[in-house]
Amino acid sequence: MMSSESTTITLFCQVLDDNSNPLGGIFKVGVRSNEFVADLQKIIKAEMSPLLDNFAANQILLWKVLTPQVMGRTRSTRNEFEGFINGIEFPSTDSDKALDENGSIQVLSPFVRLYEYWKDNLDEHFLHLIVQVPPIEHPEKALRVKARDPTPKLLPILEAQKRETQADLEGPPPSRAALISEYIKQQAKLPILNGRPFGCYAPPIGLFHPVFNSFQEVLASQDPLNLDEGACSSVKALQVAFANLYKNETDRLKAIHAPLNALLGGALERVSQTGVTANGSVIEACCGSTAYIAILEMKNEMGTAHVDPFIQAGLSYRRYWGHSGQVIRECSYCPTIILAIAGPWLCVSGAIYLEKVVVQPLIGYIWLGGSFFDEDQFHFTLRLFTALKSAISTLRSYYLTLGPTNKCPGDLVHAIPYVTPSFASTLTYISRPSPDQQSKLVYKAKFIHAGSSRPAVVKFVSRYNAKAHRILAAHQLAPTLYHTGTEDVDTSKYGGLHMVIMDFIEGKHQDGTLASDQYQKVKKAIDLLHGHGFVFGDLRTPNILINGENVILIDFDWCGKAGESQYPVTINLDPRIGWPEGVGPDSVMEMEHDQLMLEQLKPPSHDR
């Protein structure tokens, strides 16, 4: 029995709107048993910020769950739980039904102490409290999370996802679809964008959710780790378990589960849906459905079962998220951490859902077997799981508060980045690269700067010469440059790339040679760059924009110091481009190269 003496109790709670629609997922709060219900209202409001920011604490109604509701992770108990939630009808708070202790829920009075309601010890497997938020006066600010009428731009995307998930459900399960003979067929008709085969790719997933960038930042950090004795012990146990030999997959999974679970935060479990049961998953209730925070697929040894667990995990991701329905996909790219284990090797990837599923390795297969003679490898493993645990925690918080209060892709153009620069109060992406320009991450946008709205071009690049760009912009030979992440080593990267923002200028590209006056302006631009010791590098007509009488250069990705900087190793050497001799992968950039490319643009009538 719970006495009137103050003890800490843990309550598992679910927020519902006035129509019994779930807002976020299940969460827990710790509170002293001698606190008033009014104090608990304040605690819950603070705990669930920003979800409940629109309400005063005394507007939030708390209902005790009287009939035991298991927060199960199996399919049957989850269905029972969701049925209970969907069946809740809130009576008037002053009615006998609301106060009756024999119903399914009972309203709590703000000025009664908690031990009066919970006299018995609480079972941590049950839901204890329903948090009801009142109707909202302004419908456009409503917080409820339910399937909406999609925007015209989002509707075809959701329809494409629906067709894909239906086709996937009608196909073989991931364990069979990952067999190479079947996978070749799958990728031809229902591809996952994971780089297999070459060209089957999407933009970096770090553009669509910060968790993937944070993971890589923690992994690459040189800051000393706060060594935790428990984590060190778990890493040692994990290395032993990974290195050992096992007769089968079941024995390996049993051996690694405890240390792996401890390092990931203690939430790894098996989840079954139609045709899919991964070796492990981390899940969270979200929007009345299930969000998949992490998915693990494992093979006993490299090459056993004739399946790459990286491929199978991507297929499992699609199958799991196909079951989660439209509600989450409407307001999220469904970020998930993917773990693929083959014997003593681990690959960590990230996955998102755009029109199609995208899976990209964050770190390739690495040896986790450990060594007595390699302390650096131990520290790396410890840092790796520090990054993984942090990523899982971040995604759990993300899905717990997911809803229209977040920046929602459904209100924008689907498959656009989340990134907004600090100097702009707002930035809205308007369009994304066309299908034939997927290798160039260039987006049209608009942003508020210095109190006014202006159209802009946002691009993500591995390198950019901001100084050269500004030299030409000062002479109206390049767009105004507002931001480039390449100028500050501490500036965040997104998917390993830097963000660049410049004015959007309407114009066209000239095919072939230029008119005489156009040529003179391009020559002036090149002369200015050469005067400052720069080589433009990629002087082709796609990088020259004609706007009436104005001629501007628009691509400074390659631009570098003459005699020092190098051409990209991925340069396209198609002979039709006509690169001068000496231009090639990693070759040194020279001013002569610009001059020879400029000659190709000279009009036939121009005096040579």
TrEMBL record:
What the entry lists under Pfam families is as follows: Crinkler (PF20147)
Compartment annotation:
Host cell; Secreted
Q: Which controlled-vocabulary keywords does the entry list? A: Secreted
Q: What is its main location?
A: host cell
Coiled-coil residue spans:
none
Highest taxon of source: Eukaryota
**Domain annotation Crinkler effector protein N-terminal: ranges:** 9-132
Name the GO cellular-component terms: extracellular region; host cell
Record-given protein name: Crinkler effector protein N-terminal domain-containing protein
